[in-house]
Amino acid sequence: MNEGAPRRVRLSAAIIAKNEEKKIGDCLDSLSFADELIVVDSGSADRTAEIAREKGARVIFHEWQGHVAQKNFALDQAQGDWIISLDADERVSPRLRGQILRELECPRADGYAFPRLVYYLNRWIRRCGWYPARKTRLVRRGAARWTGENPHDRLEVNGRVINLDGDLYHLSFDDISAHLRTINSFTTIAANERAAAGARAGWWEILLRPPATFIKMYFIKLGFLDGAPGFIACALSAYHVFCKYVKLRERAG
Length: 253
Known about the structure:
The protein is of the alpha/beta class and 253 residues long. The chain is built from seven helices and 13 strands. It has a seven-stranded mixed sheet, with helices on both faces. Helix 6 (203-220) runs antiparallel to helix 7 (227-252).
């Protein structure tokens, strides 16, 4: 090896999963360029762990402790110089893959953010405020931690973050029923978190925030241009807000 040549950086991919046998394989395939694949499984009852191992991933069981804590645990397991963190329903697009590989030849920052493109009800949603909705997912090891309020986590970087324009694909919901189940789960988690922090919800918030969300997404963010899936996405996002504040009021008394 030429002593004057720069050392090639190693890339780790960290994914948290539970009962994702239908999606984990494609997720890991999109990360085949990584040097290390890590799947932190919180107790799948299906073939998630088996499929992950077949794809070459190191599978680690870790009891669920919330989105933020689980993702930080996965981050800590990575041994590479750089770490890309994904959910099981996300995919690295070919364009984004090329950009990541070029950046890692001579990194210019401590973190990189990608636009996330959601596939919803058989259509790519390019408006509604769902796109580009950049997510920081590629970070230098030791330069970032997951923070935020469960279930809405975010990766905060201590240093410079650069935006790439290759898409991170998000295959969010298989159907409307799956979307409704997620709304019920996420709003329960959010209401519990906020109630524990002493937050309260007034009737004005319950009455005004949901329609304001719909108006913003459907008209201001041009969700109407995404057709029927856009309308449904905006309507259910407003319902999400309604459920969150009603549950918070219920818990806070």
